[in-house]
Amino acid sequence: MSIVARHALTIGIAVFISGCGAFQQAQSEMQPPTAPLGAHRVLPASSYRVLYKFRRNRGTHPQAPLIDVGGTLYGTTDNGGDFRFGTVYAIGPSGAQTVLHSFSGGSDGLGPQAGLVDVDGTLYGTTDAGGAYNAGTVFSITPSGSEAVLYSFTGGADGGFPRAPLIVVNGTLYGTTTFGGDLKCKGSQPGCGTVFSIGTSGSEQVLHRFTKGSDGAFPVAGLLNVNGTLFGTTLLGGTERCYSSNLGCGTVYSISTSGNEKVLYSFKNSPDGSQPSSGLIEVKGKLYGTTFAGGSGGCGNSKYGCGVVYSVTKSGAEQVVYRFAAGAYDGGEPTGDLVALNGTLYGTAWDGGQACGSGSCGPGVIYSVSTTGSEKMLYAFSRSDGEKPDAGLTNVNGVLFGTTVFGGTGCPRDNNGGCGVIFTLSE
């Protein structure tokens, strides 16, 4: 499976849905990005620290954020471990890492790309593939490493290939699958995704099957619970048609725990963004998120924009907070969920940190942005200290923790260099 799933999905979902063509990135002349004045502010090197560098037998290419449980951080890697099919791991504040489980690629799942959720001391997560039908799983694991599969997706009406983290609401787990569901929505993998619930005993129920129409398609992000109503995003679908395949640019939606789904906003690509691959957070009654593409202007070798930070009210009024330029000054193509700290939003961007050239716009950045749109690049990765952050940040007592997919220690036979890192950042 892909080691850069959300990124690969956003720029090449046709790999999974043959003939869709929605993300064939049209080539255009590269234009130098225009960075806003005053945006460039790289923090002192002492503010950034690599806590751990992954290596193959300890897990590689983490795409998931971390979760803090009693001072210990837990996460997943998409690859590596004893069988090279991914791991669940724990890491202490000093950087001592322990592999709790190495996925075998069989019934226990393979390729976990989402973070974990803690329910009464037991961790729950998803794998993108593997399980009884090779369409992904929901699993539980104890801090001592005892793993159990709660549910194996079939890839049919019940959904398949979950890439998003679970949330818990009143003891029940809720999540999304990228594919499966409505079998009329077909490609090489049938179905445009689902929202589902599952009890900790393993009883699964589909709340909504996306149709690729106005209701959205292909959710790759998790859900947000706000007073019993769930909010999420779909990568494609909606009422606006902005790609050659006539697919929409993505949506923000709400859904009740009984399955009543409503689209709050359909993206238009320009100037409001497209392809929302991150989930939502709530700050003072508003929802905030990012789009991987869209906005304004070109992005490297693509005619599409480099993404935006946006806000949307629960009634569906959307506003662009910031548009990325993918240059040395601000970053571009944000993928991970935002985190709020003292009223400021913090996130990671897949690209940026250096001027665009030869099809590359740098190894990625960590940035902050105020709710009024003042953006600052806090740290630019240099590959040896991390490269291509795909996950959001985790706030632990005012210190931010995160992961990068590449960078750090070299991985044999890996042309991208580096197995990924865990890092900390403080202002």
Topology (elements, then pairings):
Elements: H1 5-12, E1 48-53, E2 67-69, E3 72-77, E4 87-91, E5 97-102, E6 117-119, E7 122-127, E8 137-141, E9 147-152, E10 167-169, E11 172-177, E12 194-198, E13 204-209, E14 224-226, E15 229-234, E16 251-256, E17 261-266, E18 281-283, E19 286-291, E20 308-312, E21 318-323, E22 332-334, E23 339-341, E24 344-351, E25 365-369, E26 375-380, E27 394-396, E28 399-404, E29 421-425
Antiparallel strand pairs: 1-29, 2-3, 3-4, 4-5, 6-7, 7-8, 8-9, 10-11, 11-12, 12-13, 14-15, 15-16, 16-17, 18-19, 19-20, 20-21, 22-24, 23-24, 24-25, 25-26, 27-28, 28-29
Number of strands: 29
Q: What portion of the residues fall into strands of 2 or more residues?
A: 25-35%
Number of helices: 1
Q: Categorize the overall geometry.
A: globular
State the helical fraction.
under 10%
Explain the overall architecture.
Strand 25 and strand 26 (375-380) form a beta hairpin. The protein has one domain (5-425): TolB, C-terminal domain (Neuraminidase, 6 Propeller). The strands form seven sheets. Strands 22, 23, 24, 25 and 26 form a five-stranded antiparallel beta sheet that branches. The chain is 2% helix and 34% strand. It is globular. It has one helix spanning 5-12, and strands at 48-53, 67-69, 72-77, 87-91, 97-102, 117-119, 122-127, 137-141, 147-152, 167-169, 172-177, 194-198, 204-209, 224-226, 229-234, 251-256, 261-266, 281-283, 286-291, 308-312, 318-323, 332-334, 339-341, 344-351, 365-369, 375-380, 394-396, 399-404, 421-425. The model is unreliable at 1-8 and 10-40 (pLDDT under 50). The protein contains one helix and 29 strands. 55% of the residues are buried. By secondary structure, the chain is an all-beta fold.
